[in-house]
TrEMBL record:
Keywords: Pyridoxal phosphate. Its cofactor is pyridoxal 5'-phosphate. It comes from Hymenobacter luteus. This is 1-aminocyclopropane-1-carboxylate deaminase/D-cysteine desulfhydrase-like pyridoxal-dependent ACC family enzyme. GO terms for molecular function: D-cysteine desulfhydrase activity. The keyword Zinc does not apply. The lineage of its organism: Bacteria, Pseudomonadati, Bacteroidota, Cytophagia, Cytophagales. The modification N6-(pyridoxal phosphate)lysine is found at K34.
Length: 296
């Protein structure tokens, strides 16, 4: 686990120590939060005797790529239900092509049905068509995803004490796991990567209630740094990523961590964090997504 100081003018002016936790380096093939969210789910799938994992995602989903890689590494078969039936007859993008290379069977679903994927009748029809499988939700966020993410907190505390732990949010599972790991101590800040993400507050509370039997109050969610919506890469955000890499030698992903760091620097400029405090931002990986944007 590598903890990298970020010497940023906004942090210096605010009197805040800003650190970047390089969780993107935690696994050679499943870096970042994906391995953490999958670990206990993989154990449960094998305990229940499943030979196949079935999960959901969009065309550039880090989660689909991670599940496909996990299947290859563990010997489990994988099925990816992809949002957008129109993609069926198009050339595969880099994410889906890599997933298929890793052995994932791709099943394209029209967008209207995809929105109802969690309804029992829709899921039952998919399993009847595609065969029995251990079902992972989109983004991998369920109660079993939380223990793996929670383990990050004691690992981090062996390196440094801190006041606020920051993470980007897609489905909210990683933040929910961090809250379990924090156990009500210190603060957590989630920065949503998608537009209209107010619903995540309810989802995160439901996950922690399910996994730990309680709802936590030591966290906030910012929904104003989505940059136009999920997987939207504005010219401003691209320039930010390029400049950040030049300053710190670290490449951020275009969907999650880049938006989080841009948000943190803006919040530092606004005086959001207490002077004298230590803020740790988590790099959760996801660099494979750059192929879908034509590179940095």
């Amino acid at each position: 686990m590598l903890l990298q100081p970020l010497h940023e003018p906004a942090a210096d002016r605010a009197g805040v120590q800003l650190l970047l936790l390089r969780d993107d380096l935690n696994h050679p093939e499943l870096p970042g939060n994906k391995w953490r969210k999958l670990t206990y789910n993989l154990r449960e799938a094998q305990r229940l005797g499943h030979s196949t994992l079935l999960t959901f995602g969009g065309a550039y989903s880090n989660h689909l790529a991670a599940v496909a890689a996990a299947g290859r590494l563990t010997g489990l078969q994988t099925v990816g239900v992809v949002r957008g039936e129109e993609l069926r007859n198009q050339p595969l993008n880099s994410t889906l092509a890599r997933a298929r290379q890793d052995g994932m069977r791709l099943h394209f679903l029209d967008r209207a049905t995809y929105r109802r994927k969690h309804q029992p009748e829709v899921l039952a029809a998919l399993l009847q068509e595609l065969g029995p499988a251990y079902v992972l939700p989109e983004g991998g966020s369920n109660a079993l995803a939380l223990p793996g993410c929670a383990e990050l907190v004691p690992e981090l505390l062996t390196l440094t004490d801190f006041d606020t732990l920051c993470v980007a949010c897609g489905t909210g599972g990683t933040l929910a796991g961090l809250l379990v790991g924090l156990g009500g101590q210190r603060e957590a800040l989630g920065i949503a990567a998608l537009k209209g993400a107010d619903f995540l507050r309810t989802d995160i509370n439901a996950l922690t209630q399910q996994a730990a039997g309680r709802v936590y109050s030591n966290w906030t969610l910012r929904t104003d740094y989505h940059g136009g919506g999920y997987a939207r890469l504005t010219p401003e955000l691209r320039r930010f990523v390029q400049a950040f890499q030049q300053r710190h030698g670290v490449l951020l992903d275009p969907i999650y961590t880049s938006k989080m760091l841009m948000g943190i620097l803006d919040l530092l400029a606004q005086g959001h964090f207490r002077r004298g405090s230590t803020v740790v931002a988590i790099h959760t990986g996801g660099l494979q997504a750059w192929a879908g944007f034509g590179g940095v």
